[in-house]
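Question (not urgent): is this output format expected?
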Amino acid sequence: MKIRNAVVFIVLAILINGFTGCTSKSTLTGDKLVKESKENLTIQSNVDMTDTNINTQIPGEIKEVKVKEGDTVKKGDVLFIINSDTLGAKQTQVKAQIEAGNGQLNAAKAARDAASAKLELAQNGARPEEIDQAKAGYDLSKVTYDRLKVLYDEKSIPKSDLDNAETQLKLASDKYDIAQKGARPEDIKAAQALVEQANGSVQAVEGQIKQAEGALKEVNVNINNATVVAPEDGVITQLNVEVGELVSTGMQLAVVTKTNEPSILCNVKETDLSKVDLNQEVSVKIPAYKDEEFKGKVVKINKNADFAVKRATNDNGEFDILSYGVKIELEDMNKPLRAGMTAFVDFGK
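Got this back:
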């Protein structure tokens, strides 16, 4: 009975050994690739590419979608157009406000100039020729009144004609007196108040125009933002909206993946960092191209540890083994890559 059990055990052992041996010969694993170069530091990682989220800066309805997933785009290519009819109407309205404001500003400046001239006249007094002109006006009004008084006494004209002539004579007399004596202090003060009022009107209109110009600038920016363009070269790897869909400010419309500068981020144990230098040339193998070897360069070594790959144990000397990020840029890459592809980086001995 014991002999029979021993035979069964031996047969099972042979079968298991044969099965595992077959598996190891038919499958090429990452561990095997690493173990093939025992003296070199070889680390498994993944191809990394920069993703850029394309977000809308204005709310509205998607009018046009110019791309589809998988399309290659260049920086500045139009990706989406958001309906901007409302913004166009607002732009027209604000432009009309600015035009009207400029008209009001011209009128306010004219009123200010007239008030300033009147104040200057009141402060400086009338010139000799202005006095002569005022006297001539008074003399004419006096002759006219005297003539109409005679006609009125003869009952040849109505009293209203005489009253009108008397009023004109009084105005001409006052104007002549002012020209001779100069403006009264209260007249100068009133003229100054008119100038200040005119200056206030000019400043108020200028403020309104400035505010309208700011609104116009904002509208123009939003109109420009209605056309969404690619911020850099890449591939559309995600498309989130369709024509007719309403979007809100900040909503993600698509993702552009920058494919022309692939890199690899390796996590290197601190015990292996002595084998890594900045600007070091490395070789890279990518299983997708199993018969080829690519060149890369170390462009960054993180100053701070990312995480502990091993916790303190009796086996590693009672201390945590930390990991540091090392960035590799692929050089002269002429093969199409996809983000996430497996890569093996050989740092050498």
